[in-house]
Design a protein that fits this description.
The complex is a heterodimer of chains A (about 350) and B (about 375).
Chain A lengths: L24 H18 L6 H12 L9 H11 L15 H47 L1 H13 L11 H8 L6 E4 L5 H8 L4 E5 L10 E3 L2 H7 L5 E7 L1 H4 L2 H14 E12 L11 H5 L7 H10 L3 E7 L15 H14 L4 E7 L3
Parallel strand pairs in A: 1-2, 1-4, 2-3, 4-5
Antiparallel strand pairs in A: 5-7, 6-7
Helix pairs in contact in A: 3-4, 4-5, 8-10
Chain B lengths: L3 E8 L3 H16 L6 E6 L10 E2 L15 E6 L4 H8 L4 E5 L5 H7 L4 H13 L6 E4 L2 H9 L5 E3 L15 H12 L4 E5 L8 H14 L5 E5 L5 H13 L6 E5 L3 H10 L2 E4 L8 H8 L4 E4 L4 H5 L4 E3 L4 H13 L1 H17 L2 H12 L6
Parallel strand pairs in B: 1-2, 1-4, 2-3, 4-5, 5-6, 6-7, 8-9, 8-11, 9-10, 11-12, 12-13
Helix pairs in contact in B: 6-9, 7-12, 10-13, 12-13
Classes of the chains: A alpha/beta (about 350), B alpha/beta (about 375).
């Protein structure tokens, strides 16, 4: 195997063939895991030893390593209020430990006297900060400004992503002639992206939610931030979803500017949006209620993209709600036409897809 | 004839420096044209060898640009050199060596985060400017594609694996052998002391190993310490766990001393969370030291099936894995044999051939 495809070669360093039999890595790891379990059960591995090891290192990590979490930082401060006057005495030189022990004993009474007062002062300060933190919590919960800030935080980390997999055939059709990189922002769980790649589209995704594995084709990034970093005309197509439901109006207009410049001449911009009519439905998807922004009608996106030079747009409505009224079999034409109108009013599409093209 | 000139922010000994030298040698020996190295800083001994030029000399009377020049930029940190090559008109090949994620630096080396963020911005900036991007691993290649690079190839670091057989420093070998004669397993990890390399997790696993399997074991952490805060935390951890006599922080060592550490090691333990390639893994395999490693970032690509790759790094699991490869001769033989084969995958002849193929895409014939 070549290093470029991740597999191994057949000959050893001496140019000969190794006689050592290959090992079954999965089986070996399972055996090791079983041994660890046995040792845990028998007490050979003390139950709390791993946690103790973590705690010991945490004592030495800088406060900056605590993710700016108020509770964690305050806990560290409280731990640090205890001042240990029993200094270590080890040394690589033979006589020094004895000397250190003598010094420690001689000055111990004085250090304890000072340390007790310093610890009491530090404890009082941390206690005061904790009380202050509790009062700030109460104020934040009662304050409308804090509530707005919490909503803004939700805007950064969207709590839920719509299921987009049903759009895969439509997008595969729109993108089948595309040659070049296609960006999907936000890609969510990557299901639609995977379907596009499967269909032969050279696609990758971005999503602001932290992802456990950055090796796959979805990287953690904001759509607008990612687009701003790309050269103009860098992408053959851009698929927008999620963020268009969540963003404030001004941010959506900026996003429209961005996609119109970052897509190459001849390229395609696709918007997968939640239809504003979804809020009137009784069976709207969960993400509709969780979207803090203001989704636009497909016709509005069509208008915005046309203003930015995009043409030949096409709108496809999402699947109808299953709760829609059924037409009367062999019924009156007028009656069925009215049922159809009623369905459109009561159970209109909860989502839509729009494609627009940048002229060559 | 086409000249291949390399631009590197800092020209110094190390993985990127050695790779740059080998690439220059490859191009010159191929007879396809000249190859020079241009840089902003030269250090670590390279400054005495007079083999690089100040990057601003390129395109001046001192070093006129050729009509068929191709530029290679070695990307590893933010640098004014990147802005310089971006402003040139010659075809550009970007060679990506990875950037340490900022989240590791801002906790321990906050002053270093700016350079990395600058590098990230420059990496994105150069996407539209580069005719070709070359990553030293598929892990790095995915990052390049994620920031807009379209033509991305993977070619390994040019490493002279035969140079791993450096003359062993006798004093270092004697000291390590004398300690070994008293019994106890020798664990080894090589790499600068940095939070992304997670030496603290190696120490925790080593503490577990001494507690459960071998009270006489020793751990050698070989490498410099750019971050004082992280080194201090590691030393505090070692001291608190009562491992002062068992864990050694060697600092930077000579190649001869490094060879002595590899020669006396029983197991190489790597729990690094972020590596763009990780050349020390190849060094360990070359010296027939079995590898136990966390399967993270580019490590699985480099190790292949020649090491024991762990999904997590719970100290109990790491310690048990290390004990198994040390004590089970069948497992040890299989891993070391696979390791020697794996090193040949990255042999210089094979890597040089791959690089010539890749560069042919950007160099006019």
């Amino acid at each position: 195997m070549s290093p470029t495809d991740g597999r191994g070669a057949a000959s050893d360093a001496t140019g000969g063939t190794s006689h050592a039999p290959a090992i079954d890595h999965q089986k070996l790891l399972a055996e090791i895991d079983a041994e660890v379990q046995r040792k845990r059960e028998s007490g050979d591995i003390p139950a709390d030893l791993e946690r103790e090891l973590d705690l010991v290192f945490a004592r030495f990590a800088p406060v900056d390593a605590l993710e700016a979490d108020f509770e964690q930082v305050l806990t560290r401060a409280e731990q640090a209020t205890f001042i240990d006057v029993i200094a270590p005495v080890e040394s690589s030189r033979p006589v020094v430990p004895i000397f250190k022990k003598v010094v420690r004993k001689v000055v111990g009474w004085y250090l304890r006297y000072v340390a007790q007062q310093t610890s009491a002062f530090a404890h009082a300060i941390t206690r005061a900060v904790r009380l202050l933190g509790e009062r700030v919590d109460v104020l934040e919960q009662a304050s409308p400004v804090a509530a707005q800030r919490a909503a803004a935080d939700g805007d950064v980390q969207p709590p839920s992503a719509p299921d987009l997999s049903h759009w895969a055939p439509t997008l595969a059709r729109w993108l089948q002639a595309t040659t070049g990189r296609v960006l999907h922002a936000e890609a969510g769980d990557g299901a639609l992206l995977a379907a596009l790649v499967e269909a032969g589209v050279d696609a990758y995704g971005v999503d602001p939610r932290p992802r456990p594995n950055v090796v796959n084709e979805v990287r953690e990034d904001e759509a607008a931030v990612h687009l701003r970093a790309l050269p103009d005309g860098a992408l053959a197509a851009i698929v927008l979803s999620g963020c268009v439901d969540r963003m404030a109006l001004g941010a959506q207009l900026q996003l429209a500017d961005l996609v119109a410049t970052k897509v190459a001449p001849g390229g395609t911009v696709i918007v997968l949006g939640t239809h504003p009519a979804a809020w009137a439905e009784s069976h709207a998807p969960v993400h509709v209620d969780l979207s803090p922004g203001r989704p636009l009608h497909p016709e509005t996106w069509q208008h915005l993209l046309a203003q930015r030079g995009m043409t030949e747009s096409e709108i496809v409505a999402g699947p109808p709600d299953r709760a829609a009224l059924a037409p009367v079999p062999k019924g009156d034409r007028v009656l069925n036409a009215n049922i159809e109108r009623l369905n459109a009013l009561l159970f209109g599409p909860s989502s839509y897809a729009l494609a627009a093209h940048r002229p060559e | 004839m086409a000249n291949l000139h390399q631009f590197v922010p800092t020209f110094e000994p190390g993985a990127v420096g050695a790779h740059t030298v080998e690439l220059q040698r490859l191009w010159r020996e191929s007879g396809r044209g000249e190859s020079e190295v241009f840089t902003e800083h030269v250090r670590g001994g390279f400054e005495n060898e007079n083999r690089s030029h100040l990057f601003t000399d390129y395109g001046t009377k001192r070093f006129p640009a050729g009509r068929d020049d191709v530029l290679v930029y070695q990307m590893a940190i933010g640098s004014v050199v990147a802005d310089f090559v971006k402003g040139r008109r010659e075809p550009l090949v970007l060679n990506h060596h990875n950037l340490t994620p900022v989240e590791y630096l801002e906790r321990w080396e906050p002053t270093a985060t700016w350079g990395v963020q600058w590098g990230q911005a420059q990496l994105r900036d150069l996407a539209g400017r580069s005719a070709l991007a070359v990553a030293v691993s598929h892990y790095n290649a995915a990052q390049l594609r994620g920031v807009g690079y379209r033509q991305v190839e993977v070619a390994p670091l040019l490493i002279d694996v035969d140079a791993f057989d450096a003359q062993v420093e006798p004093e270092a070998l004697d000291a390590l052998t004398a300690a070994k004669a008293e019994g106890g397993t020798d664990w080894l990890f090589v790499g600068r002391l940095a939070a992304n390399k997670c030496q603290h997790d190696v120490i925790k696993s080593f503490a577990m190993y001494r507690r459960v399997y071998d009270p006489g074991a020793r751990l050698h952490l070989v490498g410099g310490a750019p971050a004082d805060a992280y080194r201090a935390a590691l030393e505090g951890l070692v001291s608190t766990l009562g491992l002062r006599g068992a864990v050694s922080f060697t600092g930077p060592v000579s190649t001869g001393a490094l060879a002595a550490y590899y020669r006396t090691a029983d197991v190489y333990v790597c729990l690094s969370e972020h590596e763009g390639f990780c050349a020390p893994l190849l060094e360990a395999m070359h010296h027939s030291v079995p590898v136990v490693a966390l399967a993270a970032a580019a490590v699985p690509e480099t190790v292949g099936d020649a090491g024991l790759l762990l999904a997590g790094k719970e100290p109990a699991m790491v310690a048990a894995a290390a004990d198994r490869v040390v004590r089970d001769s069948a497992v040890r033989s299989a891993l070391t044999a696979a390791g020697r084969r794996r090193v040949q995958d990255f042999g210089l002849a094979r890597s040089r051939s791959r690089w010539l193929d890749v560069l042919a895409q950007a160099v006019p014939s």
